[in-house]
Here is the input.
Amino acid sequence: MSDIAHKRGVSIDIERLERELGIRVIETSARSGLNLDKLKPLIYESGFKSHYKCYTPPSLKSFFTASEIDLDKYNDYQALQIVYKNADIVGGKAHIKIFEEQRAMEVMVRYKAIDILLAKCVTQSDNRKQISKKIDRIATHPVFGYAIFLFILFIIFQSVFRLAEYPMNLIENGFSLLGNYFSDFLPQGVFQSLIVNGVLAGLSGVITFIPQIVILFFFLAILEDSGYMARASFILDKIMRKFGMNGRSVLPLISGAACAIPAIMSTRTIENRKERLITIMVTPFISCSARLPVYILLISIIPIHGKVFGIFNHQGFLLMAMYLLGVFTSLIAGVILSRFIKKSEYTGFFMELPSYQLPRAKNIGITCLSKAKSFVWQAGKIIFMVSLVLWFLSSFGPTHKMDAVEKEVATKIINKEMNQQEADLYLALERQQYSYAGYFGKMIEPVIKPLGFDWRIGISLITSFIAREVFVGSMATIYGVGQTDYVNIRKKMQAEINPKTHQPQFSIAVCLSLMVFYALAMQCASTVAVVYKETKSWKWPAMQFVLMSITAWIASWVVYNLFV
Here is the structure.
């Protein structure tokens, strides 16, 4: 960050620094690309790697006043890890007892050497208070800091719906035109149903929700690139400690809003085993980007009209509520887990707050493009394939059952019990219920019926375990099968009527119950796999899956019965 150093009046004697360190020193700025062309060739030079010569640590034995460890058995690196309480690296366990003061002494000696080095090589002509420090007086304030953080989240979630409304409608209208074109162009039959209600339904379940994903990560990229995200970690440190974690847990939890998999992997920076394990267990509660299409779909069809306070749309409030629900649940889970997971030593949280900077358009553009590309190509492939398989399972079933349904409908038409339009609709519904997917959905319906879910939602719950966002494509396929024209999934779900209550099938109670279930359930096979990889045991992912499923079921049942 030499550009920032120059703005601050910091001058570095590069030649002196090279002599003192014994390594090559290149002045660079990643933001502007300064001297990156000089740095890259040096990486491949045989003499590039060297050793830090100006600081030779004192004997590590001097930091152990009471220990059962024979330091002669370890090399310098292993001994240093013992000082840092990283017992797993050297195979040690709870018998290692090292005082905090001993670790602090080693750090003090190291930083003293750094201060001496800086005094030799660095001068600063401008000692004025930096703008960043002035902003931080408010941004990291014990009270105002939290208020600002919540206000920023509120603006983001309001914007996700308000800004994405127009491009989302354009995409939906485009698919409707394309679907109607193929419905008219292709002769009625299996191939037409495959193209319209299989292929197009699956694609629409992916592409329709790209605007919301891009907008969400647009704002997150601004927060990251401006330096504010580090402040969020700083101000939340005290809160996290009360729930069995520390400030280092904030970064995995925040990155969990993108995807739980890299978030869980990033917990490797947490030295304390207990805090790391708790963070791994609670991170999937944070609403990831895969849940966003589910939230968008359900919030957009929920039968609520009007604006909150006459200004704000209710969609933004509901979306923010889902994210906050995940956060609060993760904190509560952290408290519960901290009582059962074996205690370990206190770990401090140290971090450098970067200076505030203007976000770079290039960085933000790359972030938005990569997230959209990832959603389309990675999640999209899964959604598309699942949609095709589900189309087949929803379109075909035992021959004798399908024939019986067709004869029943034909009889009703002859007896003038139904007109042709009513008969077509009834036939489509009956064929779907007796399809292979329908049989499976009916099997699991008793478990989910208390939550307000029917067998079609049940099928989507199962298929979305591959990836949460598959729910949207599954619903589009299930509701499209048997229809002669292309089905707009939002309009179809809004128009769906419960045959028993004669009320909207997707009522406020059902939509909220379903959103809460997705907010709290472990609906991702890849997350289960990465938890196993990071914990090296099936015990933790199995416990995580069971506890999250029970939590989701109970919470959904409570919400459904409150609003039904």
Notes: The beta strands are 10-12, 122-124, 307-308, 312-313. DSSP finds 26 helices and four strands in the chain.
